[in-house]
Amino acid sequence: MTTTGNVDRRAPRFWPGAALMVLLAGCGDPTPADPGKPARRLDSHAAATASATPTPAPPINDDPRLLVFLHDRYGPRATLDTAWKDQWDDQDQETTRPVERRLCARETVAVAGQPHHLVAVCQTIEDVASVEPGRIDLYVLRDGDAVPGTASRPLVRVAEHLLMYSGMRGVPGTVAIDTLGPQRPAFRVTDGWYGQGYSLVSRTYVALHGNRLTPVASFRDHIDNDSAYDCDEDPSACEQRLFNIDFQVTADMQALQDGYAALDVRGVGPECTGPTDEHYRLVYDPAKGVYPIPDALLREQCRG
User: Which of 115, 239, 243, 261 is the most buried (most CB within 10 A)?
Assistant: First the structure.
């Protein structure tokens, strides 16, 4: 979201429907941020760790079965390889809205020795205000019961997390598939807020736990003010408050809590008056069902 006047550095939140309607009613559609910056940031980070790649299931051609699932869920326009246009019955707006959907992530992994199919469908909402996010549907599928008289086993839902808010200007962020533990495959959703030359990029993990898909952690992936508009006239006045920090994540599979690995987060880059090299260890809290996140990993500028 691009603003005027003072910079609004609040990161995007998952808004309730009513709050979203109020915001959209009062917002215009100002000039977007530099369209090149989001792609550069969102594609810059690899999985949590190379050794944390989910265990792949034996390769088989699941395209026909997945297409049947998509047709059943989204109608006959759905495809595996290209985006498709559709109409969406938006319950928050109480209206039908044009939407473009696409299959944006898929992987088959072994959970408890059985193949599970992790599938994400990204939804770009057309003709929206800059403050409105896109939407993402997340699914975990597995083999269903065999169809009588055939060898066919349709894909059935184990868990789902629907209409997840992500991105801005109606366009969702990116989706990848990581693992947070030997039996904890997870979707990693990366998206950002861009305005007035500031970038706030976050990653959110939505993990499979039994028959549930639930968000378990959300924290910064990158922050910078490299293109701060208020420095254009006198860059020297900003030398002591420029920052550009990447946060890299490594999963420690030897330190598990309720099946979740500890996450080591390292932040590196220039931070206002000098370089920073910071480290945080995130440990899953079974009582709360999430990774507690320190304020430093939620910040919008240099540490105080």
Answer: 261
For residue 48, what pLDDT is reported? Answer: 57
Q: Is 74 helix (H, G, I), strand (E, B) or coil?
A: helix
Give yes or no for a contact between 201 and 170, defined as CB atoms under 8 angstroms apart. Answer: no
By three-state DSSP, how is residue 56 classified?
Answer: strand
Beta bridge partners of 245: 223
Sheet holding 134-143, edge to edge: 84-90, 95-111, 114-125, 134-143, 155-166
Residue with tokens 């500031």: 198
Which pLDDT belongs to residue 251? 97
CA nearest to 271, candidates 234, 246, 237, 298: 246
**From edge to edge, which strands make up the β-sheet containing 274-282?**
174-179, 185-195, 198-209, 212-224, 244-257, 260-271, 274-282
Q: What is the model's pTM?
A: 0.79
CA of 144: how far to CAs of 62, 115, 154, 162, in Å?
Answer: 13, 11, 5, 21
DSSP bridge pairs for 108: 117
- Do 27 and 129 touch, CB atoms closer than 8 A? yes
pLDDT at 11 over 50: no
Amino acid 193 reads W
Number of helices (H), then strands (E), belonging to the chain: the values are 3, 12
Amino acid at 39: A
Q: Is 139 helix (H, G, I), strand (E, B) or coil?
A: strand
